[in-house]
Amino acid sequence: MNVNLRQVRAFIVTARFASFTRAANLLNLSQPALTVQIRQLEQSLGVRLFDRNTRSVELTRVGRDLLPALERLLGDFDAVVESAREMAALRSGSVSIAALPSVAATVLPPLIAEFRAAHPRIRVQIRDGVGRRINALVQEEAVDFGIGADIEPEAGLETVRLLGDELLAVLPPDHRLCAAERLTLEELAAEPLILTNPESTVRYLANRAFAERNLLIAPAYEVTYMSTAVGLVRAGLGIALLPSTAIELSLAPAIALRPVDTPALRRSIALVLKAGRSLSPAAQAFREMLTARVDAQA
How far apart are CA 188 and CA 194, in angstroms? Predict the structure, then answer.
C-alpha cells in the first residue's frame, strides 16, 4: 500500500488538534473515514502514529519524530500547487522571446507594455539576434518561442506567419539612383553594397536574390548592426539592403529608400515554435495577444 497526500494531511491535522472529531470536521470527512486514512498510513509506514483511547489522542514517539518532516513535505506540495494555479491564472510566470532586431525594436515594445499592464507580475524577456540564432534558441528551448524570417523549413520547428516585409535599398539622398522610383538588382550589383553578416536572414535573402539573377556580388562593407549600415550610407560609402521593418530607417535622417523590382527580396516574419511542445500559460497568452494585434493591423 502506498502513502498518499490525503493520508499525510489527515495525520497532520489530527496531530495538530489531538482530536479525531475536530480533524474530521476540518477535512470534511466522517470520523470513520478519517480513522481509515490514519490506519492505512500506519500500515504503509509500518509504525503506530497515535496512542488513542476513549478520552484522548496522543502522538507516539515515532509520530512526533515524523510530524515535522511530513509537515514540510505537505507544505512544499501545497506551495507547488499554489504556484501552478498562479501561473494558470496569469498572476505569475515568465515569457522569453528570441526575435529579429527589426521586430524587437518595432513590433514588440508596445505589445510588451500592453501585456505588462494587464499582467504586471509576469516577466517578459527579449533576446534579439539573427535568424539562425533564433532557431537555435527555440530548438534548445532556451526561449518559449521565436519571431524570425520564414525562409527555409528546419526539422523540429514549426512556423506560423505573422506579417511580411521586404528589403529596401537604402541610399544617400544625393545618389544618382534616387531619380528612379524602383531599382533593379542589376543596378545594385554595379554599386558598392553594404550588407549584413552572413548569419543574418537579410544577407541570406540578398545572396539568394542576386544568385537567381546570376549576379556576383562582393560587399564593400559587411556589418552586424543595421545602425552601422545606415551610418555608412549617410557617409556616402555605398547602398545598403535593409528590411522595411527596421526602426533605423524611420529614425535616420539623410537617407533615401527605394523598393527593389523583385519579389525575391520579400520575406515572411513568423512565429518559430518547437514542434510538439506546449507553451506555458504566460507564453500562450503573449502569443495570442501578438497574433491578435498583427491580425488587427493587417
Answer: 11
Cell of 36: 481509515
What pTM was estimated for this model as a whole? 0.77
Mean pLDDT of the region 246-264 = 85
Q: What is the mean pLDDT of residues 17-38?
A: 92
- pLDDT-derived band at 101 (thresholds 50, 70, 90) equals confident
Q: Helices 281-297 & 61-88, crossing angle to 10 degrees?
A: 0
Domains, in order of start, for the chain: 5-88 (1.10.10.10), 93-162+268-297 (3.40.190.10), 166-266 (3.40.190.10)
CA atoms within 13 A on the CB side of 11: 34
Q: What are phi and psi of 238, to 5 degrees?
A: 160, -170
Q: What's the CA gap between 254 and 189, in Å, rounded?
A: 22
Q: pLDDT, tens digit, for every residue of 33-45? A: 999 999 999 999 9
Query: pLDDT exceeding 70 applies to what percent of the chain?
Result: 99
Q: Rounded to an integer, what distance in angstroms lies between the CA atom of residue 66 and that of residue 73?
A: 11
CA distance 238 to 8: 74
Distances in Å between the alpha carbon of 160 and those of 76, 97, 172, 271, 296? 39, 15, 36, 5, 16
